[in-house]
Amino acid sequence: MEIGWIEALQEKIDDHMISARSDLDNYRYDSSFGEYSPEAVVYVTSTKAVSQVLKIANDYKVPVTPRGQGTGLSGGDLPVHGGIILDMSQWPASVEIFPDDLVARVSPGTLTSVIHAEADKYGLMYPPDPSSSNISTIGGNLAENAGGPRGLKYGVTKDYVLGLEVVTPEGEVMQTGGHTIKNVTGLDLTKLMVGSEGILGMITGATLKLIPKPSSVQTVIAAFSTMEEAGKAISKTLTSGILPAKIEFIDQACARAVEEYEPLGLPTDMEAIVLVEVDGHPTAVQEEATTVCKIMKEVGGTNVFLPQTNEEASRAWQARRLVSPAIAKIKPTKASEDATVPRSQIPEMMVRLAEIRDKYNLSLVVFGHAGDGNLHPNILCDERDQAEIARVEQAIEEIFHAALELGGTLSGEHGIGTMKSPFLEEELGPVGVDMMKRIKEGWDPNNIMNPGKIFPDKGQRLILSRRLEE
Ligand SMILES: Cc1cc2nc3c(=O)[nH]c(=O)nc-3n(C[C@H](O)[C@H](O)[C@H](O)COP(=O)(O)OP(=O)(O)OC[C@H]3O[C@@H](n4cnc5c(N)ncnc54)[C@H](O)[C@@H]3O)c2cc1C
């Protein structure tokens, strides 16, 4: 008698796996919404194991959901159709630096902050810096094309990937790209894999581009009594001839939440706080920081502050990093969005967000990477209050519509996953969606890789309430 797929995995795979229902509970969630149980989790630690699992899954047509550290905010690693979770978090961290090539080769389960620290030892920098870099894997960053504050000047994950090792849905191992900065041989499968949210294959290794670490950085902090002034300060800075490494924005509710969570000295009586970091040669940095201070003051900024020590500057950035955990204390449920607009539209988007907040009577706070238009409106609510959740769903829909109307996008960095798929066609149009589906069908004829992501199921709409299974 033919054995079942779980028995086939148990027979062939040496890596640890679990399949008892009582052991699978932790894998029902990620950092977004929804609750779906896998039928097995395999803790893969080698390319060979990934290949063996995918061969079995493909033979038996069993869904496979890749999972890094589960910090994704769009539902990407929820096993919506059951099957196998391939957990990459136990894969030993490995960062091999090639200083003469300014390149790093990394394993998929490596935390991004470990790559930052290793590059730093050679006076080099891996610029992509998601705020989750201490708790997310490079595999997850690659699959989501993660961004972060430094995206303003340095770009995002895709801008630093030279090559990948990929296991295809049929279990074959493929190398894409290479070790060189320039490479135009054939179609760019590296870029296609980056941001593919685990629907095209497993990323089991990456070659990353590094750059020299800037020799000097300077932070500037300013507070504003209106959002409008903060918006003006951001656009005036961006058109002044200076390109800061980061321009981040925190609204008053976020500042208050951070100060309650861990007092770090943020002003709590102002509508908006803007944090800027300039980097480069020390002389240029001092000049640019002085200009930024001047601009902030000219448009009405108060409490304009230039930290003089590393400790002072790190406190400011620590405050920015704490926004997410701090606002999570306000109410039990947090719906995080990352609708992104052209930079000129930031002030209008702020107006629209305030209107949506008032219309649906919700606690909506905003922070984010204002320098590149990537705002993070967060709605704080209580999942147990069905009436409130229904208003949140409507508000999120309006946020997406507003971003698209203003020439923006559904997601600047968190991905589509399950959360934004119902709106995909509104941004891409039917031809764009169809072309993407054809690529998916070509790569993964049995649709085993992360099914139920990016492309909406028929009639699917945004539903935040968890789908509780028995
Ligand atoms: C507090 C907080 C702050 C955050 N800040 C940022 C930010 O500043 N910028 C930003 O971009 N995001 C941010 N995020 C979102 C999240 O951290 C990123 O999306 C991150 O890249 C996910 O990494 P992960 O290891 O947790 O992957 P997971 O969440 O486990 O997986 C994410 C997606 O990648 C797929 N995947 C994972 N590993 C692989 C692999 N090896 N091969 C193929 N597919 C794979 C999964 O199937 C899933 O679709 C934040 C999240 C939190 C909780």
UniProtKB/TrEMBL annotation:
The keyword Cytoplasm does not apply. Gene3D superfamilies: 3.30.465.10, 3.30.70.2740, Vanillyl-alcohol Oxidase, Chain A, domain 4 (1.10.45.10). Residues 34-213 form the FAD-binding PCMH-type domain. Pfam families: FAD-oxidase_C, FAD_binding_4. It comes from the Bacteria. Belongs to the FAD-binding oxidoreductase/transferase type 4 family. It comes from Salicibibacter halophilus. GO terms for molecular function: FAD binding; oxidoreductase activity. Its cofactor is FAD. InterPro entries: FAD-bd_oxidored_4_C, FAD-bd_PCMH, FAD-bd_PCMH-like_sf, FAD-bd_PCMH_sub2, FAD-linked_Oxase-like_C, FAD-linked_OxidoTrans_Type4, Oxid_FAD_bind_N, Vanillyl_alc_oxidase_C-sub2. This is FAD-binding protein. Keywords: FAD, Flavoprotein, Oxidoreductase.
